[in-house]
Structures are given as C-alpha cells and as structure tokens.
Amino acid sequence: MLRVMLVDDEPFILQGLKVLIDWNEEGFQIVATAENGKEAIEYLKSNQVDLIITDIKMPEMTGLDLLETVRRDKISDAYFVILSGYSDFTYAQKAIRYNCIDYILKPVEKNQLLTIIKKVASLQENNKIREQDHQKMEKAYLERNMIALLNGKFDSVNLEYVKNHMQLSEGVRYINVELAQLPDEDDDGTARMFQRELNDACQEFLREDSSHAIFDVSNDEKSYDIGIVYCDYMAAKMEMDEEAYLRKMQNSIEALVQKEVCMLVGKKVPNISGISKSYGTACILKSLVAFHEKKSIYYYEDEVQVNQSGVVLCKGSLDALISSIEHDEKIEIRQNVNVLYEEISKGGVVSDLVNLNINYLLFQLINLATEQDDEINQEKVLQFISESSFEEGVMRGSSVHLSRFCCEYADYLVQLRKNVSRGVLLEIEKEVKEHYAENLSLRELSKKYFVNSAYLGQIFRKKYNQSFKDYLSNYRINEAATQLIKTDKKIGQIAEDVGYKDSDYFIRKFIEIKGCTPSKYRKEKSNAG
Questions:
Q1: Which residues have CB under 8 Å from 239's CB, separation 6+?
Q2: Is the pTM for the entire model greater than 0.90?
Q3: Looking at domain 166-303, which of 3.30.70.270, 3.40.50.150, 3.40.1190.20, 3.40.50.300 is its CATH number?
Q4: Taking residues 283-293, what's their average pLDDT?
Q5: What does each C-alpha distance from 172 to 70, 233, 282 come to in angstroms?
Q6: DSSP 8-state class, residue 307
C-alpha cells in the first residue's frame, strides 16, 4: 500500500477526499491528515509517506510553503499534489519548480483524482524498478572490487571502494560456503538454483551485512560457492565468540535451505587489505578436506599442520593408479585410489604432502594425454583437469569422486586414441542455435554424439577459447539483447525466452556480459536509434 497524507484546513474537504474514491482498492492508504503545513511537517519528521495532497491557502503555513520546506530541508521525497481554488498560473509555476507532480483546482472530481493516483502508482513502480536496477549494479560493482581484492590484483581504487561501501573491522577471514552435496548429474540449472537459494540464505542470516556475501566467487565451473567476508565485529555485536557465531551461521543457513552445507574458513588476517591471503588459505583447504574427517566447518589453522617427518611421495601407489588409468582398468582404478587415500592419510594429511602427490599425478596425466596426441597444448590439458570432476571431487571430500574422475580420464585417453573428428563441434553449434533456450549441457551432448564429455570439453575450449557454459551464456545474452532492441516484451519474458527461469540471475549475467542492466541497454539502444 502507498501511504497518503491529506493536508487542508477545511474538515469537509478532508472528509470529501477520503470518500471520493476507494483508496484501498487502488493500492493506497490514508495514514494521516493535517490542518496546515506546520502540523504536516511535524508528522513527516518521524513518519514516511508516499503521496501528499495539500491545499494552498491554509493558516500557519501554506501548501506551497510546505512543499518548499519539505524539498529544501529534504524532510520527505513524497510526491506532491497541490489543491487550489485559484487558477492563478504563478501558483502552478512555483509548485512545478519544487517538483510537484500535479496542480488541480477545487472542487476535485473523482475521475481527476483517480487519474492522479494512477499516475503516482506508475511513477512509484518505475522508481522501484530503477532503484532495483541501481542496487543490482551497485552490488555487482562491489563484488567486482571485492573479487579483485580476493585475487590479490587490486589497487587503491578497488580498496577504497570496498572500504566505503562495506562495514569493516579488524580481524578478517574469507569463508567459502557450499552445499555439502550437489546433484551428481551435469545439471547446471538445478545446481544454479541451489546456489541461488544458498546465496539468499547467507544474505538472510547476515541481514544488514548482506553485502559481505559474494555470489559465485570461484572461476571453477564445477563449484557453486558463496563467499563470505567475515569481520570480528559480526560476532561481537551478537555477544558471541567467533566459533559460536560461525556455528550459528552454519545452522541458520542449513535451516533455511534444508540441506547440509560445508564452510571452509580461511586464515584470519588483520584487515581487508590482506583478504587475498585468507582467500588463498581457504582454497588450500579445499584441496585438503578430501583427506580429512568429514565436518561441516573446517578452519585452516586446525586442518593445515606442519609435517614434522618430512614430505613423502606415495610413488608406488601413484604409479599403480596411473597405470590403471592408462590401460582403462576401471576396477583397478577404484582399488588404487583407495590405496592412495589410505597412504596419504597415514602421512598426516598436511598441505605439502597432499600437494606433492596431487601435482605428481597431474603431471603424469598430462604426459599420458600428450603421448596420445602430440598437438595437445599441455596448459590446456592442465586447465581442463583443474576444472573437471577431479576438482569437484576433492572439494566434496570423497575418494569416490577421485575414482570417478580417474575413470573419466581413462575414457578421455581412449577417445584421444580414436582421434574424434572435430566436426562434432559444428553439430554442437547447431544445437545451441536451435535449442539455446533449453537446458543444454555438455554431458548430454556428449552422449548424443557418442563423444567422451571430458574430451569434448577439451576440444571445445581449444576451438572457442571458452567453456561450453560461457559460450551458451554469451549466445543467450546476445539473443536477449536482440529482443530488447526489436521487441517491447517485458524483461522477465525475455529472460524466460532465452532460457533463464531466474530473472535475477539473468540480469546478473546480462550485467556481467554487456556491462549494464537490460532496461538500461534497451533505453540506450532506443535513444541511439
């Protein structure tokens, strides 16, 4: 309901305005009346209204003086409508000068009043849309600056913007929040929906600190994370210690999403300028939790310890695993993964030990790929590996996922040996052109064209210099841009037409790719035309 205030020194005028139309039916509520401008100002100092309808001639303070005072002192941004028994144009001129939306003569007619309040409702709705667009742009720009800080690639401009737009304190941590279990199927739409719910839950818990929740921090396509920038003041204002506060956060988020979540808490740093160090330790923690007892909250300081006995390479276990991958022996792959996990666990599960063994495995897998196809770029293979099921599995903390990756990589090698024709990419281009609004996934396309999904992802990235998901997103947004220019469809309808069920996510992707909101894009292109 839009809140209305009526100001007139004649009681029968006030009563007549109250009953002239059905205010509630039109979406308005009369919340206050006043006999003069001074009385109105006293009310406005502590109450919010959306529309003020005031007479001009009143004792104490006239309607025009009320309008001038409210605008000059910024008491309220409510819309003003001036009533008058005088048709003198100078009154109207002064009213317009102070941003009065209408000036009408008494007696007020029903249709005239209805026209005015419909105009107010329309203005309010347009302002709401503009404000929402502005907030989304501000949020996206803040996240962009924060991600620069997280990656350690920032300057004073990035740092000052974050400091000016977020409440901060000493004692800062980066916290990675993800669902403990995502769908096993390659269903980006479902996973993204869960991620959206998780983001909403994080913001609901943080409330006035909701800007500290950052959507989709990781560049990893298999990660559907939310980043939270924790500051010591958050626990202090709830009169809790840090551990109790983070446990409350975890419980609250789980209650809201009705799913288990996993929180990876990076090392504490003195202030926001050092957040990249905390973010880096949270990333290290991701690669270690697979070898630790399953928990809902992992602290870097607790999980990462120094190996006093020295770093040990589990070469025998690794070589056996690599051999089983090369020969596509699925049963042996699973057995060898379990042996590797057991051996690493006995070594104390420290970062140096894990990193050495994992890096050795990756290095040998790259060699296996290049032996099959000497034209393959080693960096591309490594990029593919880092974004594949292996990374996803390590984050989820189970040898089952590493086994799955190794089996998929074995299939990948088999596919390389067959030297799959690159012509399949032409078919995929057609699929995107004809079915871009549907829930396309690389995994389903690989099944359709009988190509290993891992290998298909590799050759797709090699040709287009981007992932399939990014290619599809760009195609969808370009199609949306065309509709914005050539049709008068609502933005929500266009989002659905190009394959986005979540209009907020559509707007976020549009801003990311086009640099502005859909409504601004439409307006700019319309004006340019």
A1: none
A2: no
A3: 3.30.70.270
A4: 69
A5: 42, 9, 13
A6: -
